[in-house]
Amino acid sequence: MHGPADQLEGMKDGALLVAGQAVSLRSLVADRLRLAIITGRFRPGQQLRERELCELTGVSRPSLREALRVLEAEGLISTMPHRGPVVAVLTPEEVDHLYALRGVLESFAARQFARLRRPEDVAALKATMKRLEDLRESGTPLELLEAGSAYYRAVASGSGNPYLAENLQALHNRIALIRFISLHERSRNRMTFAALRNMMKAIIAGDEALTERLWTEHLAAVGTRARGIVEAGYRLPGSTDASALPLV
Question: What is the assigned CATH class of domain 92-231?
Fold first, then answer.
């Protein structure tokens, strides 16, 4: 099922094929479907038909159903009476809740990182920032999403708390489509890059209070933007074409 969402610079159908790859089949299928949801190939509210998914992925129904259960546990899909699995749709209020939680968890992770500053974690964070800088002008939204996610994972890992990192990863999966859509607006990306750079500097300097303040301000701003994207029907506010993701 195709529509305006196909204009997003994201995942193509051919990338969904899983058959013949030698890794955990459930994990691989879940990874491919997760990416398809994150990049808008399957849109919020869209019914996920098993027959179509089996054809796209090249796997059996039992393997597919195992993967769908993983995504349901993550909150990316839900099972509806008489419809089966559908891609989850966030309300503006749910977006507010998710970003409020992200603000608490991620600002705490960043502050802990600034306190610990383990050399290997600092090196990993610098590497993710360099990757973002390399992609700033020419990177696709999907490349930017992956690089930005690596930056946030580096911060979570730098906190030294694996449980915090695990919960932040689950939260990021829930909001990844919103982040992907926002990355289609290049002018705002420059402001985000500047914020990420300043937050990294505060962490490296070991300034815990500044780190927490910058992180809280950044997440408040992106949270407001995220709500606007959902209120606009999963599109950039004011956009009528390239970033449209009409609900079904």
Answer: mainly alpha
